Amino acid sequence: MNDFEEGMLNLLEKHVDAEMRGDLELTMATMTKDPHLLNIPNMMGGDDYEGVKTFYKDHLVGKFFPPDVEFNRISLTIGKEQIVEELVICFTHTKKVDWCLPNIEPTNKKVKMAVVVIAGIKDKKLTHEHIYWDQASVLVQIGLLDQKNLPVVADESANKLLAFLKI
Q: How far apart are CA 162 and CA 114, in angstroms?
């Protein structure tokens, strides 16, 4: 990894670390003055600085995940203006996870979700995040969707990706 790529990765990791530690100001300091954030499956996020900050404050920063959360990077692609990270996030749904499961009370069920994050970068700041995951597989895992007669899996896709890490 060259210095440029390492700098971009460090920025993304600083951003995520600030989210996890509950530091809203540092999280926003890693972003441009006009960022946007979109969680594709549920259309949550924000369209400008205040919108992103409000989303983070109300739904994500410091409220991110239950204590047993694990992030498993599957792949990372660093381009000139964006990073694409493929990962599997595992957690037990012991508290509300508003950014992913808005208005859903904890089910105490295990969740493994394959996630793709596309983070735009300009002038050493994040311009945007587009975050994708299979919401149907998450809903099956917490018991809100019956996969019978549907072309839907539960944690099988996440498990398959995790198996590639062991090859």
A: 9
What pLDDT does residue 67 have?
A: 85
Q: What is the pLDDT of residue 104?
A: 95
Q: Is the four-CA dihedral 25, 30, 35, 36 of positive or negative sign?
A: negative
Within 8 A by CB and 6+ apart from 49, the residues are 28, 31, 33, 34, 35
pTM: 0.92
Q: Is 42 helix (H, G, I), strand (E, B) or coil?
A: coil
Walk me through the domains of the chain, giving residue ranges and CATH numbers.
3-166 (3.10.450.50)
- Tell me how crowded residue 12 is: count the other CB atoms within 10 A of its CB: 20
Positions in the chain whose pLDDT score sits under 50: none
